[in-house]
Amino acid sequence: xxxFLDKDFLLQTEAAKTLYHKYAAxxxxxxxxxxxxxxxxxxxxxxxxxxxxxxxGDHYKWRLMRACxxxxxxxxxxxxxxxxxxxxxxxxxxxSIGNPVYHWSHLELQRFFNINLPLISENIDAxxxxxxxxxxxxxxxxxxLIERSNVTALCTTDDPADSLEYHQKIxxxxxxxVKVLPTFRPDKAIYFNNPVFFGPWLEALEKVSGKKVxxxxxLKQILTERIDFFHSLGCRVSDHALDPVVxxxxxEAEAEAALTKVLAGKTTELTESEIKAYQSRIMLFLGNxxxxxxxxxxxxxxxxxxxxxxxxxxxxxxxxxxxIGDKVFxxxxxxLLDALNTANSLPKTxxxxxxxxxxxxxxxxxxxxxxxxxxxxxxxxxxWFNDHKTGMEKQIIDLAxxxxxxxxxxxxxxxxxxxxxxxxxxxxxILCNMVGxxxxxxxxxxxxxxxxxxxxDICYNNVIKxxxx
Length: 469
Prior knowledge:
alpha/beta, 2 domains, 3-stranded parallel β-sheet, 9 strands
């Protein structure tokens, strides 16, 4: 029996061990999609205890605790004792073998705390006491945790109405060696037919821009100015959660008429065609603006969000009540990409699906629009519910089967946690094991230097070149 989480964890062949230890492990990290809070980076946040650091905003861990019957007031409650939260989490983890959080949590303990004890009930006190003792050290502030992870740059997720004040402060201070860059996430501009958030969002956008939105042309002008502002602070990536992507041929006048209804308080009178007309035209506008500036456009597809309406009303979004969706989107996606491409305004694009059955759909669609730059169209990394061992293996196989693995831009964290960076190690070990196994089986020509260089490219070099920071 192999030891648990030793130096050759997940590496099953000699070629895999060589590729990981000699090539992948040393590479820095560019976390091009995450949900870290820039305010916490600016303030260089420190943590009261392990529960705050580990369980403060991680819905992956919350879902496991709920599945084990832990009451919500303990899972997300603000007044529950940290030790009690941690105790319930450990008891859930020891039942969660096979779940990626089981591996991630142990890797985080090892890499940040040098604690090699397994997360089982018998070790709760020892881990809690040792970790909390270490958390008093300055090495565990937000900035130091990022630096210790060998991160060179990261992209947060930011709304067009955000002031980006903390990005400005970090940049102007000039002390933090890691680039903290914003990402343009205009979901609320697209889902104008959702009265819960569109009205308040529009007010926020008008406030930050100092302009009133009276028309579709006026909204586009403000968004263009916000894009320029984001660009001035280093933004080179946009992000869209399209649930699902929709497209139809439409005119500016049709989009204008649809928005006029909403501005007049007549959202309930919108037809499906009017909604699609507006969303199609604004996506064409945004894609064109991204292309002009050399940005990357990320499209996240295949999600059913906020499924538990009672919990959503109580806790809000992004609290662990989303699931994999199965809506059909391929035809509309192709029409959107083709319309942008025909207008010579298709930006570099990363396509992700939460439903991994769509990997080959997205990869083959991407292959229809390659060109202009190396790896212009990307099948995104195994995302969210797929960033486990089998999900990553499937994404790598699907990409290799239908595209060019060597041009892949690799892993991201998609995380709100400052100690989530071992997920990159997890991905790199899985990647090296797969390629190493192909080599051992005689399925590829194993020129160590060339294959090693390709591994380094996937881990870091490709995404630096792709995002062009």
